[in-house]
Amino acid sequence: MRIEEDLKLDFSDVLIRPKRSTLKSRSEVDVARSFKARHSGKTLTSVPVMAANMDTIGTIEMARALAAHGCNTVLHKFYSVEQLTQFFSGADEALRSHVWLSYGATSRDVEKHAAFEEAMKKAGAGNNMPDRICLDVANGYQEAFVHFVAEFRQRWPESVIMAGNVVTGDLVEQLILTGTDIVKVGIGPGSVCTTRKMTGVGYPQLSAVIECADAAHGLGGLICSDGGCQVPGDVAKAFGAGADYVMLGGMFAGHDECTGEIIDGNPKRMKFYGMSSDTAMDKWHGGVAEYRASEGKTVEVPYRGPVDATIREILGGVRSSMTYIGARTLKEMSKRTTFVRVGRQLNNVFGAS
Asked: What's the mean pLDDT in 76-99?
């Protein structure tokens, strides 16, 4: 047993300090970015905000709505080959370039992707085959997962691969050297994730992003901050900490583009749940296996109509943050961000432990 004494921080522990700026308006900043994927060599251009691959969030309807704003959607894992073929066969390049497929790390996932590839060819839409892949597991520290990523890279060398989740630099480096273009960072920060409560395992998200970004960028890789953002300012903090992409779940919940059950009332509400919750396990896996416990919860969130207003609010908050620190482009944000610790100092003043 050992204890790390270094302070680790979440988004709520800091604020971004304002700096002199020559920018006159948030309309002058650019929130789009272009990256070159380390392994595939593909150029990725988008507003690097992503809808999470949760079955209520990562929907085809969400993908259409967010692509109109230049943002990304990682489709959930439970679309059938037929549904994916129908969607991508008719999707133009502007839409396809903002949509990611999502798989786990089993032989069934390899078989599904191969079957999808074959179905697209049979449909005469082989050129529309998506090349952005998210390999997603709760625990990216398993050696089997690292081997799976390597094998997937070998079989589909031209794909852009995002893989995770991890929270430390050593695994970021290993995944990048194994074949990952973008490492997904975050264990337990999500609003409907109970991993930290159930297992005691996790890592404060802001510190995880800072440390993992440093490890990834040194190797020419990228990271995606996954989870922990509750307000637009948290998205800005994630970019300021060095995240290349920011993935959101709860902030996109409750919209028309989601598939959560709408609960009538005044006001209306919508169900939202974690992918390791009893709700998700019952829906997709026939219940929680006897050897494990649920690590997610089911909640009701306000029904909020179309997602359009929400994504405008999120991007507006990021743009405003950029003007406060004089960052004309999103790439400049991490270079111009200085975080100020808050909260703990105030608690000490009032004698709180």
From this structure: 96
